[in-house]
Design brief:
Chain A: Keywords: 4Fe-4S, Iron, Iron-sulfur, Metal-binding. The complex is a heterodimer of chains A (about 625) and B (about 150). Helix content of chain A is about 40%, strand content about 15%. With about 625 residues, chain A is an alpha/beta fold. Chain A has five domains: about 20-145, Glutaredoxin (3-Layer(aba) Sandwich), CATH 3.40.30; about 160-360, Rossmann fold, CATH 3.40.50.11540; about 370-455, Ubiquitin-like (UB roll) (Roll), CATH 3.10.20; about 460-545, NADH-ubiquinone oxidoreductase 51kDa subunit, iron-sulphur binding domain (de novo design (two linked rop proteins), Up-down Bundle); about 560-630, Alpha-Beta Plaits, CATH 3.30.70.20. In chain A, the strands form six sheets. Chain A has a five-stranded mixed sheet with strand order 12-11-15-13-14. In chain A, strands 2-1-3-4 form a four-stranded mixed sheet, covered by helices on one side. In chain A, strands 9-8-7-10 form a four-stranded parallel sheet, sandwiched between helices. The longest helix of chain A is centred in the last third of the chain and has 19 residues, at about 530-545. Chain A is globular. A five-stranded mixed sheet of chain B has the order 2-3-1-4-5, covered by helices on one side. In chain B, helix 2 (about 20-30) runs antiparallel to helix 3. The chains are: A alpha/beta (about 625), B alpha+beta (about 150).
Chain lengths: ~625, ~150
């Protein structure tokens, strides 16, 4: 592969690639993102290859594994071009039909199309599906167009033109000015303006500077960065090189979690491809600008998502944070100025350069510009990645894009911001999604995890869950975080076990206050899940403490399972499947749960046929006495 | 243990002390754990004290100082899986294998671990056995999946 040593050569290469693409040639794109792979996308791709080979169509039809388009709920997703037909939940068994019907006869396989649950109408294309229709997918929309392992695909959609533009038509100051004008704020959580870090670093006198991609996406329930780095690694790399040029750095790092092996593979491949073509290395595109980049795998430590901890890890040490009186933008990796931004932040940079800051600020609110990607998960109909302009309301995201709560359940809260964020109740759903508004509501934007909870979720248990998570992830360096979290967990565990005492809520609030003294954001923000649940769901805490009742019927130690004698038809399902052998049954005998033996696993509730609905959970009241032996017979 | 393989890993990273974590990750993926002789070799070649290697090996979750079982069972405890009943999945896995989270059984058959988000929240709750995902898993299906492991 020859290095491209001028912008003209880049454009020639691009023209050449585009000219070789026949827009009328059928192409089968299968999402090869983590979610679809887990539901069998690799088998679907293999089936297409075999089937096309069988029909002798291998040269006439392209097949590619692409990045994640976001609709994980209905994966594996298959797109058929040029028609743009979108098939959902495709299984290998469906492949022969798709090839014979759609590819050969140009007919649509109706049963694989999206079906509107309310009206029953089917949607042929992505853009007709409400999940996609209500989004603004500036960044994510590129994923499905690209074979995530092909650099040519990226070049074909205009890749590296932003890099060429900054190197030959803009000074570093102009690049900085454009980013400043766009008011791009960090997508990793805090929402710190990107340009401020860049400027601080640029102005630092030290000539050795670094730029870093933070892909240590540790928030449970968040996988936006993974989808971007797996699906469109070159866009992250291009953004990083542009940042390096603006800041004056010649070396960069990409810090990726080792839990994301495909992301590690794809970004490494992208760097190799970019080096071969002269986008990375010495004298990039003949501009005289040098830049090299290394991938550093994280070894499993949530705290390494924090900037100073991440930089310590890059140096090959245990990733513990340090006080940041001096910003890492001035003294970071090996004490050199280091600009660290999140994956999504870097992915926005090439678009801002290409389309201009004015285009970027046309999306979003005055304080929070552009779009934001969320991973919408939990008790929601359409689980997946969604990209919306900042400023839309949480309600719109949950109902219009997410399709509401499944199973006719009632919405209770949405959790944003991961372990540093908070739970937002129904009454606040009209809040616009904006860095500052979410903070005011006691939560935060965070990296973009959005976990929807319904009436079956216990809010005290959710607070305990996050604090338990943070107990494992606190690095232990500073006392407020290490001890504060432990004590909070002890109190919350006590409450969820039905042993809460009067004054526990106040104790939690007091502990939360003292944790403000922690060294880094992990400890400082750790009380947020607790404080926000106390703020909006104090009644649930009180029910646990005073009435020994879990209103959501979720806390294991406060509930019991009971078979309603009037409803039990002695079908024996629960009797046979109870792993603890805690059910007394028999032919035509009302089944009874032995409360002593019951492990509260819930299997009986799951397997009791819904037409009987005999098993129920109870909390805060005594379990009714079992039916006497002589009354157990069912006529 | 083949010490020359360890040397190869160290050489691949140019023997730089700053690559310590990357070297340990490679050893971990090669052996499934960090044998003591390997760590000693790393300490000698990189001129890094054993205390620092121990610090790293115990700080990061990816490393194990004891051998792992033949089958790795990961239960996702991410928030999305949590609200969809991950705790029940974990309880059942622990019951079926007789192994607590973070531990390995004495005949090295199963290692059970919890992970915080595998990134396939649409499939929650998720159990991963030897790299294969089992999505939307109900506690009643777990025994049959695990009993298939030799």
């Amino acid at each position: 592969m020859t290095r491209l040593n001028s912008p003209e050569k880049l454009e020639c290469a691009r023209k050449d690639i585009v000219s070789r693409i026949d827009p009328t040639k059928p192409c089968i794109s299968v999402c090869a993102g983590a979610g679809c792979l887990a539901s069998g996308a690799a088998e679907v791709i293999a089936a297409f290859k075999t089937e096309l080979d069988f029909h002798g169509l291998t040269t006439e039809v392209n097949t590619k594994g692409t990045g994640c388009p976001g609709f994980c709920e209905r994966g594996p997703i298959v797109m058929i071009y040029p028609e743009g037909i979108c098939y959902l939940k495709v299984k290998p068994e469906d492949v022969p039909e798709i090839v014979s019907h759609t590819i050969k006869e140009k007919k649509v396989v109706d049963r694989l199309l999206y079906e509107d649950p309310a009206t029953g109408t089917r949607a042929l294309r992505e853009s007709d599906i409400p999940f996609y229709k209500n989004q603004q997918r500036n960044i994510l929309s590129e994923n499905i167009r690209l074979d995530s392992k092909s650099m040519d695909d990226y070049l074909a959609i205009g890749g590296y033109s932003a890099l060429s533009k900054v190197l030959f038509q803009m000074t570093p100051e102009e690049v900085m000015g454009e980013i400043k004008k766009s008011n791009l704020r960090g997508r990793g959580g805090g929402g710190f303006p990107a340009w401020r870090k860049w400027e601080e670093s640029r102005n630092a006198p030290d000539p050795i500077k670094y730029v870093i991609v933070n892909a240590d996406e540790g928030d449970p329930g968040a996988f936006m960065d993974r989808a971007l780095i797996e699906g469109n690694p070159h866009s992250i790399l291009e953004g990083l090189i542009i940042g390096a040029y603006a800041v004056g750095a010649h070396e960069g790092f990409i810090y990726v979690r080792q839990e994301y092996p495909l992301a590690v593979e794809n970004i490494n491949l992208a760097i190799r491809q970019a080096s071969e073509r002269g986008f990375v290395g010495k004298d990039i595109l003949g501009s005289g600008f040098d830049f090299t980049v290394k991938v550093h795998m994280g070894a499993g430590a949530f705290v390494c998502g924090e900037s100073s901890a991440l930089m310590t890890a890059l140096e090959g040490r245990a990733g513990e944070p340090r006080p940041k009186y001096i910003h890492t933008a001035v003294k970071g990796v090996w004490d050199h100025p280091s600009v660290l931004n999140n994956v999504e932040t870097w992915a926005n940079v090439p678009q801002i350069i290409n389309k201009g800051a004015d285009w970027f600020t046309s999306f979003g609110t005055a304080g929070s510009t552009g779009t934001k990607i969320f991973s919408l998960v939990g008790k929601i109909t359409n689980t997946g990645l969604v990209e919306v302009p900042m400023g839309v309301t949480l309600r719109d995201i949950i109902t219009k894009v997410g399709g509401g709560i499944p199973g006719g359940k009632k919405f209770k809260a949405v959790q944003t911001g991961g372990p540093s964020g908070g739970c937002i109740p129904e009454a606040q759903l009209d809040l616009p999604v904006d860095f500052d508004e979410l903070t005011k509501a006691g939560s935060m934007m965070g990296s973009g995890g959005m976990i929807v909870m319904d009436e079956d979720t216990c809010m005290v248990d959710i607070a305990r869950y996050f604090i338990d998570f943070l107990k494992d992830e606190s690095c232990g360096k500073c006392t407020p975080c290490r001890e504060g979290i432990r004590q909070m967990l002890a109190v919350l565990t006590r409450i969820t076990a039905g042993k809460g005492k009067e004054g526990d809520i106040e104790l939690l609030e007091e502990l939360a206050e003292s944790m403000g003294a922690a060294l880094c954001a992990l400890g400082k923000s750790a009380p947020n899940p607790v404080l926000s649940t106390i703020r909006y769901f104090r009644d649930e805490y009180e029910a646990h403490i005073r009435d020994k009742k879990c209103p959501a019927l979720s806390c294991k130690e406060m509930i019991a399972f009971h078979i309603d004698p009037a409803k039990c038809k002695a079908c024996g399902s629960c009797f046979r499947q109870c792993p603890a052998e805690a059910i007394h049954g028999g032919k035509k005998l009302i089944h009874i749960i032995d409360q002593e033996k019951c492990t509260k696993c819930g299997t009986c509730l799951d397997v009791c046929p819904s037409r009987f609905g005999a098993v129920r959970k109870i909390s805060g009241e005594p379990v009714p006495a079992p039916v006497p032996e002589d009354k157990r017979a069912i006529a | 243990m083949d010490i020359s393989k360890i040397d190869q890993i160290i050489d691949k990273h140019d023997g730089e002390a700053s690559s310590l974590i990357q070297i340990l990750l490679d050893i971990q993926s090669e052996h499934n754990w960090l044998p003591k002789e390997a760590l000693k070799r790393v300490s000698e070649k990189l001129q890094v004290p054993m205390s620092r290697i121990q610090h790293i090996a115990t700080f990061y979750k990816a490393f194990s100082l004891v051998p792992k079982g033949r089958h790795q069972v990961h239960v996702c405890m991410g928030t999305a899986c949590h609200v969809r009943g991950a705790q029940r999945v974990l309880d059942t896995v622990q019951e079926v294998t007789g192994v607590k989270s973070g531990e390995t059984d004495s005949d090295l058959k199963f290692s059970v671990e919890t992970v915080n988000c595998l990134g396939c929240c649409a499939l929650g709750p998720v159990m991963e056995v030897d790299g294969k995902h089992h999505g939307n898993i109900a506690p009643s299906q777990i025994a049959s999946v695990l009993n298939n492991c030799e």
